[in-house]
Design goal:
Distance between the termini: 26 Å
Number of helices: 4
Structural class: mainly alpha
Strand content: under 5%
Oligomer: single chain
Largest sheet: none
Length: 79
Amino acid sequence: MIDAEFIGALEKCTLAEEEFDHTGHVRAAYLYLQSGDFVEGLGRMRRAIRNYAGSLGKPDRYHETITVAYVALIQQVLY
C-alpha cells in the first residue's frame, strides 16, 4: 500500500487493525511529520490514533505521553 493510501485508510478508519502495529505507527508519524511542522504532524497523529482506536471500540488504546514521545523521537531523527 502506498503512503497516501495508508494515511487515507488510517484517517477513514478503514485500515486493517494488523496494519497499524508498531511499524504502522512509526510510518504514520513519519508521513505526518513530512507533510508539515512538528506541531501540525503531532496534531494529525493524535487525531488519527484517537479516531482509529475509537472506531475499533478501543479508545483507551490512545496514550498521550507515548504518542508525543514517539513523534518527538522520530522528529529528532529526521532533523
